[in-house]
TrEMBL record, chain A:
Species whose genome carries this gene: freshwater metagenome
Cofactors required: thiamine diphosphate; Mg(2+)
Chemical reaction(s) catalysed: 2 pyruvate + H(+) = (2S)-2-acetolactate + CO2
Name assigned to this protein: acetolactate synthase
Major enzyme class: transferase
Automatic annotation (TrEMBL), chain B:
Statement: the UniProt record of this protein carries the keyword Cytoplasm: no
Native source organism of the sequence: freshwater metagenome
Protein keywords: Amino-acid biosynthesis, Branched-chain amino acid biosynthesis
Pfam family, one: ACT_AHAS_ss
Transmembrane segments: none
CDD domains with a match to the protein in the record: ACT_AHAS
Protein name per Swiss-Prot or TrEMBL: Unannotated protein
Signal peptide: none
GO BP: any one term: L-valine biosynthetic process
InterPro entries given in the database record: Acetalactate_synth_ssu, Acetolactate_synth/TF_NikR_C, Acetolactate_synth_ssu_C, ACT-like_dom_sf, ACT_dom, AHAS_ACT, AHAS_small-like_ACT
Keyword presence, Magnesium: no
Lineage: unclassified sequences, metagenomes, ecological metagenomes
Domain ACT, chain residue ranges per copy: 18-93
Pathway, per record: Amino-acid biosynthesis; L-valine biosynthesis; L-valine from pyruvate: step 1/4; Amino-acid biosynthesis; L-isoleucine biosynthesis; L-isoleucine from 2-oxobutanoate: step 1/4
Length: 585, 185
C-alpha cells in the first residue's frame, strides 16, 4: 500500500471492509450501490446474496449474535434502505453490533426526489447508534473505520454509512486512518469501561450484607463476554441467578444457581425471587417493562446495584442505590476482587441459606409444566421443543422468531453455553428466525443451527431459504404450526373475551411443498409418535436445509404469564399450579 | 455527572433549564439533537445554534422544559449522540444570558414619543419607521425582554420575534465546575 495509490471510492470501500476483517457480508445490489459490487468480485469477502434486504439485515444480526463481531449488510438506496429499517431498529434495541452500507443517489441528485432516492440518514437516525452520509470519496476509509469502532465499543449497536453513487466512482488517494486519527475525529465519543472504584466497593459491601440477593443478568453480560466473571461471582457468594430473554445462555441453565428467565413469561421462581429480593444486582440489564411488570410494585424491598456501560440506563426506570457505569466483565471482575478482599479482611457474610432454601422451594413447587396431549389429539408445542432439546448438544444454536414459540423456546430449551441463543427481544420482530438462523450458520458452519418458528413468522421471511440452499448454508427450521397468530390469539382469549379478530391463519400454505420448492427437505409431523423420528431425520441431513412442520394444538397458551401492566406479584400460573399459589407468598 | 439544578429562579410555573451543548459542526447535527428531543418526548422551550470560535464546533443553547422529564435523563441521552462533545448545564444564577428581540409596534401620533422613550430607557434601537408603526430591536436578559414586551403590549404589538437565549458561564470558578466532559456509549 504505497501512499500514492489511487483507488475508486468503491475500491476503497471494499478494501476498508477487508481491513476491518470482514469475512462474510450479506446484501443485494441495485442501482446506486452498483459500483461497490464490481471490486467485490475480486475481494476475499464472501458475499451472501439475499432475496430481500430485510433478510440481509437479520442475517447480519444472527452473525453478530453468535460471534460478537459486527454483522455487515450492504444494499442499495431507496426501497432497499427502507427495507433495512426493521433490522437496524431490531439491532439497536438489542444492542447488536452491525454495520450497514447503503447506496445513495449521486451527490448532485440528492434532494431532487431522484429515482430510488430517500433520506436514508434521516429515516434511520433514530434506529441507529450513529449514521453518516459520506460526501467525498477520500472520506470513505475514515467513515468505515469509525462505523466499526462505534458499532463495537461502548454499548454496541448498528451504524449505517450512506454512500452516494458518484463518490463510489470518484478517484481518491488511498489512506487508512490510524487508531489515533479515528479517536481524534470522535471527540465526543469516549465510552467508560472501567467502573468507579468506590462504587465497586459499595457493591461488594451490599452483596456481602444482603440476605436475599438475586443476580439479574441482561444481554450486556453477553456483549461484554462476562459470562465467566459472572459465574465466578455467583459461585463465590452462592447467589441465585436469573437470565433475561437476552441473556439466556449467559449462565448455564443446568447450574443449581440458575433459576431461569424472569419477566412476562418467566418462570414463577425467577419472577418471585426478584419480587422478594432485598438486593438486585443488575448486570447489563435495563429494567425492561417485560421484566419489571408494573414498575411501582417491582421488587419493592430490593436495593439496586446497576452495572451498565450506558450511563443513560442508570436511573431510567429504577433508581439504583449503587450505579456503576462500565464494561460488565471488567466491573464484575473488580467486584469479585473486592468481595474476596473483604472476606479476607474478616467482613462477615450475611447468611443466605434460608433464602436459598426458599427459592429452591419455589422451584420444586412451580416447575415448568404443560398438559400432555390426549391420545389422538393435536401435538403439544412444548413436547416438540423438549424432544428437539433432548436430541441437541450444548453447542446447538437455537434461533427463534417472535411469539408463543419464542417464549416456549426460551423456557423449555436448556442453554448451557453463551452465544447459543439468537432472538429478537426488544423490537419483537416477527420473521426474524429464518434469516437470523442463516446468518448464524454462515458464521459458525460447524454448529448445528435450529430455528424454532411460528407459522405466522415463517411466512414473513421464508423466501430466504432459497438463499440458504444456493449458498449451501444448511439450517434446520422447526415450524410450530398452530394455524394462528398464537400470542395475539392468547391475548384475545384471555383479555378480549375470546373474541378472535384476524388471527386465524388456517389458510396456510403446504409448508412441506414450500420447503421442497426452495430446495430443502420438508417433513410434516402430526402425531407424538412421529416426533422423534422426524427430529432424528432432520438432524441426520447435513447437505440441505430441513423444514419440519409440527402441526400443534391451536389453543395452547404460554404460562406463567404476567398480564401487561399487572404487578409481578400477580403472575398467572399454569392452571394446574394455581391451587398452590400461597407458596409464593 | 451533571447535577440537577433545583433552585428555579422563575418559580414553579416555568421549569426551565439551560443546556449549553458543544457539538461537532457536521451536517445533520441539529436534526440529531432535535430528533432526540422529539423521539423521547422532551420539550424544548427555545433553541439557539451557531458556530463557536473554533469552526469545527457549534454551540447549541437549549432551554428545556423539564416539567415532564428529569434533566439527568435528557443530558445522558444527549451524551449518547456521537457528535455531542460536551454538555454544560448552566445555572441561571451563575450565567450570563442574552437574547435578542425584534418587535413591530403600533406607534402613531402622540404615542410615538412614548414608545421612543421606552426605546431609550431599554437601550433598544429603532430599526425601521412606518407611518404608524415602529420596528424595534432590543437585546439583553430574557427578563429584560419580557419586561419590554409587556410594556409595548399596551400600544399593540403587530409582530415580534425572539432569538431564544444564548448563554455562557460567568467567569468564576464555581460555574466551570459543572461542566461535564463528553462521554458516551
Amino acid at each position: 500500500m504505497s501512499a500514492k495509490e489511487i483507488l475508486t471510492g468503491a475500491e476503497a470501500l471494499i478494501r476498508s471492509l477487508e481491513l476491518e476483517n470482514v469475512e462474510t457480508m450479506f446484501g443485494l445490489p441495485g442501482g446506486c450501490i452498483l459500483p461497490a459490487y464490481d471490486p467485490l468480485l475480486k475481494s476475499s469477502i464472501r458475499h451472501i446474496l439475499v432475496r430481500h434486504e430485510q433478510g440481509a439485515g437479520h442475517m447480519a444480526q444472527g452473525y453478530a449474535h453468535v460471534t460478537g463481531r459486527p454483522g455487515v449488510a450492504m444494499v442499495t438506496s431507496g426501497p432497499a434502505a427502507t427495507n433495512m429499517v426493521t433490522p437496524l431498529c431490531d439491532a439497536f434495541m438489542d444492542s447488536i453490533p452491525m454495520v450497514c452500507i447503503t447506496g445513495q443517489v449521486s451527490t448532485t441528485a440528492i434532494g431532487t426526489d431522484a429515482f430510488q432516492e430517500c433520506d436514508t440518514v434521516g429515516i434511520t437516525r433514530s434506529v441507529t447508534k450513529h449514521n453518516e452520509l459520506v460526501m467525498r470519496a477520500e472520506d470513505i476509509p475514515m467513515a468505515i473505520r469509525q462505523a466499526f469502532h462505534i458499532a463495537t465499543t461502548g454499548r454496541p449497536g448498528p451504524v449505517l454509512v450512506d454512500l452516494p453513487k458518484d463518490i463510489l466512482q470518484n478517484k481518491m488517494e488511498w489512506n487508512w486512518p490510524t487508531d489515533e486519527e479515528v479517536l481524534e475525529a470522535l471527540p465526543g465519543y469516549r465510552p467508560t469501561t472501567k467502573g468507579h472504584s468506590r462504587m465497586i466497593r459499595e457493591a461488594a459491601k451490599l452483596l456481602l450484607a444482603a440476605e436475599q440477593p438475586v443476580l439479574y443478568l441482561g444481554g450486556g453480560v453477553l456483549k461484554a463476554r462476562a459470562a465467566e466473571a459472572v459465574r465466578e461471582l455467583a459461585e463465590l457468594l452462592q447467589i441465585p441467578v436469573v437470565t433475561t430473554l437476552m441473556a439466556r445462555g449467559a449462565f448455564p441453565d443446568d447450574h443449581e444457581l440458575c433459576y431461569g428467565m424472569p419477566g412476562m413469561h418467566g418462570t414463577a421462581t425467577a419472577i418471585t425471587a426478584m419480587q422478594k429480593a432485598d438486593l438486585l444486582c443488575a448486570l447489563g440489564a435495563r429494567f425492561d417493562d417485560r421484566v419489571t411488570g408494573k414498575v411501582a410494585t417491582f421488587a419493592p424491598d430490593a436495593k439496586i446495584i446497576h452495572v451498565d456501560i450506558d450511563p443513560a440506563e442508570q436511573g431510567k426506570v429504577r433508581k439504583p442505590d449503587v450505579p456503576i457505569v462500565g464494561d460488565c466483565r471488567l466491573v464484575v471482575e473488580e467486584i469479585v476482587k473486592a468481595v474476596k478482599e473483604m472476606l479476607a479482611d474478616g467482613v462477615e457474610r450475611a447468611d443466605i441459606t434460608p433464602w436459598r432454601s426458599r427459592v429452591n422451594g419455589w422451584r420444586e413447587q412451580f416447575p415448568l409444566t404443560y398438559d400432555q396431549s390426549e391420545p389422538g389429539a393435536r401435538l403439544k408445542p412444548q413436547y416438540c421443543l423438549e424432544r428437539l432439546r433432548d436430541a441437541a448438544t450444548d453447542d446447538t444454536i437455537l434461533v427463534a422468531g417472535v411469539g408463543q414459540h419464542q417464549m416456549w423456546s426460551s423456557l423449555f430449551w436448556k442453554f448451557n453455553k453463551p452465544y447459543t441463543w439468537v432472538n429478537s427481544g426488544g423490537l419483537g420482530t416477527m420473521g426474524f428466525a429464518v434469516p437470523a438462523a442463516i446468518g448464524a450458520k454462515a458464521a459458525k458452519p460447524e454448529a448445528t443451527v435450529w430455528a424454532i418458528d411460528g407459522d405466522g413468522c415463517f411466512q414473513m421471511t421464508a423466501q430466504e431459504l432459497v438463499t440458504a440452499t444456493t449458498e449451501g448454508i444448511h439450517v434446520k427450521i422447526a415450524i410450530l404450526n398452530n394455524t394462528y397468530l398464537g400470542m395475539v390469539r392468547q391475548w384475545q382469549e384471555m383479555f378480549y373475551g375470546e373474541r378472535y379478530s384476524e388471527v386465524d391463519l388456517s389458510g396456510c400454505p403446504d409448508f412441506v411443498k414450500w420447503a421442497e420448492a426452495m430446495g430443502c427437505v420438508g417433513i410434516r409431523v402430526e402425531s407424538p409418535e412421529e416426533v422423534d423420528a422426524a427430529i432424528a431425520k432432520a438432524n441426520s441431513i447435513n447437505d440441505r436445509s430441513v423444514v419440519v412442520e409440527f402441526r400443534v394444538e391451536e389453543f395452547e397458551k404460554v404460562f406463567p404469564m404476567v398480564p401487561a401492566g399487572a404487578s409481578n406479584d400477580d403472575v398467572l400460573l399454569h392452571p394446574s399450579q394455581e391451587s398452590r399459589r400461597e407458596f409464593l407468598k | 455527572m451533571t447535577t440537577i439544578n433545583t433552585n428555579n429562579p422563575y418559580g414553579d410555573s416555568r421549569r426551565h433549564h439551560i443546556l449549553s451543548v458543544l457539538v461537532q459542526n457536521r451536517p445533520g447535527v441539529l436534526a440529531r439533537v432535535s430528533g432526540l428531543f422529539a423521539r423521547r418526548g422532551y420539550n424544548i422551550y427555545s433553541l439557539a445554534v451557531a458556530p463557536t470560535e473554533d469552526a469545527d464546533y457549534s454551540r447549541i443553547t437549549i432551554v428545556v422544559d423539564i416539567s415532564a422529564t428529569p434533566l439527568e435523563q435528557i443530558v445522558k441521552q444527549l451524551f449518547k449522540l456521537i457528535d455531542v462533545v460536551r454538555i454544560t448545564e448552566l445555572d441561571p444564577r451563575k450565567t450570563v444570558e442574552r437574547e435578542l428581540m425584534m418587535v413591530t409596534v403600533k406607534a402613531d401620533g402622540d404615542l410615538r414619543s412614548q414608545v421612543t422613550e421606552l426605546v431609550a430607557i431599554f437601550e433598544a434601537k429603532v430599526l425601521a419607521v412606518g407611518t404608524d408603526v415602529l420596528t424595534i430591536s432590543v437585546d439583553g436578559t430574557p427578563q429584560k425582554l419580557d419586561d419590554f414586551e409587556e410594556l409595548l403590549r399596551e400600544y399593540g404589538i403587530v409582530e415580534s420575534q425572539r432569538t431564544g437565549r444564548v448563554a455562557l458561564p460567568r467567569l468564576d470558578r464555581e460555574a466551570r465546575k459543572s461542566a461535564t466532559k463528553g462521554k458516551a456509549s
